[in-house]
Design a protein that fits this description.
alpha+beta, eight-stranded mixed sheet, five-stranded antiparallel sheet
Length: 371
């Protein structure tokens, strides 16, 4: 018997039209001082400040965290903007939400989600950080309220292992049947078939977008420090009341970063591996994967592909380094018109060869009646 599942782990930061048409969206920046405020007059007084967290890697993909301000230039809609604030952050406090796709009754899948979550907590969350856990399927529920207690977070993650009622794993050789890859013209299992044997988004609910909005608004909106959401998903969203645009709006308005960690656990059956493209295995949701990848890049994060849980540790260490070692800069845009339009941001690091990971833009504030 062989098995495989592709788990998508996403650490998140509106525009679905921008996302799906190769553009990368963002939302209006809120300066750090206003993130703890609810008074609208206070927010309005400093609303023009655009502040950005970002990371830099060199041409060897190594993290670079000691560049001075003079090495950076920031552009808005192609026009350079004077940098008014700049800082290097070491050991940044992290506020992180872990979101688990619990829309399956397969115990072995839930076990894999729990294993990946435990590794994330061990390698990324530190004692000074704050974490919470949500589960989402047909509804969104809080599994663990925000806490700095990593042991309690791990204990809460382990709860989902007992939620599965089915123990069987998918068999690459159906009993009495013909292996799917032996059918003429077949490259392997359909990428539209998930690890439970059902086609994606037809019979299961996965309220991912609702979870992103609820988790950000309830537990991250008023926090200070670096904010992220980690999602372990079996596929893309299904049947949320919120749209992709809604989810991106709230994430980007609150400067929440996103990473997508695509985890493949390929089958051990040699015949299967010889005849099947590993990228078209059970658990691959092509459409959902591309949306999540572009979402991550729009927030300044990125997608990492990991083949097998044994290789997960190195990827998580990369994420930990990036989340805890950041730059930030701020500027007042030359274009002060409150038109509500999307404005692109680009940060360059000199000399050439450095790559900057930052959100790609924001929405300008709209002129309020009476202003």
């Amino acid at each position: 018997m062989s098995r495989t599942v592709a788990l998508t782990m996403m650490v998140l930061g509106p525009l679905s039209l921008f996302l799906l048409a190769q553009s990368t969206p963002s939302s209006a920046a809120v300066p750090p001082v206003t993130q703890e405020q609810s008074d609208q007059t206070t927010i309005r007084s400093d609303v023009n400040l655009v502040s950005i967290y970002f990371t830099v890697r060199d041409n060897h993909k190594s993290l670079v965290s000691d560049l001075p301000q003079g090495r950076f230039r920031v552009f808005e809609d192609g026009k350079e903007q004077p940098i008014k604030f700049f800082a290097q952050h070491s050991d940044v406090v992290l506020n992180v939400g872990l979101m688990l796709d619990t829309g399956t009754n397969m115990r072995w899948i839930l076990n894999q989600e729990a294993d990946a979550s435990a590794l994330f907590l061990r390698h990324v969350v530190r004692k000074q950080d704050l974490g919470f856990i949500l589960g989402y399927a047909a509804r969104v529920e809080t599994i663990q309220l925000p806490t700095p207690d990593i042991a309690l977070l791990k204990e809460s993650v382990d709860q989902i292992r007992d939620w599965g009622t089915a123990t069987a794993m998918p068999d690459a050789h159906p009993q009495g049947g013909t292996p799917p890859w032996s059918i003429p013209g077949s490259r392997g299992p359909s990428p539209g078939v998930g690890p439970t044997g059902q086609r994606y988004n037809e019979k299961r609910e996965a309220h991912l977008y609702d979870a992103l909005r609820l988790g950000t608004n309830r537990y991250l909106k008023h926090e200070i420090g670096r904010k992220a959401v980690v999602v372990i998903a079996l596929s893309g969203d299904s049947k949320s009341e919120s749209t992709l645009e809604d989810a991106l709006d709230v994430l980007l308005e609150n400067d929440v970063i996103a990473y997508v960690l695509q985890i493949y656990d390929p089958p051990h059956d040699r015949e299967y591996m010889d005849h099947c493209d590993v990228r078209h295995e059970y658990g691959r949701d092509e459409h959902g994967e591309q949306v999540l990848k572009k979402l991550a890049e729009a927030t300044g994060g990125r997608m990492l592909e990991v083949y097998g849980l044994d290789n997960l540790t190195a990827a998580l260490d990369q994420i930990s380094d990036e989340l805890h070692h950041q730059y930030s800069l701020g500027y007042y845009p030359a274009n002060a018109v409150k038109d509500g339009k999307f404005r692109k941001i680009k940060i360059d690091a000199l000399p050439d060869g450095y790559k900057v990971f930052a959100r790609k833009g924001y929405y300008a504030p709209k002129q309020n009646i009476g202003d």
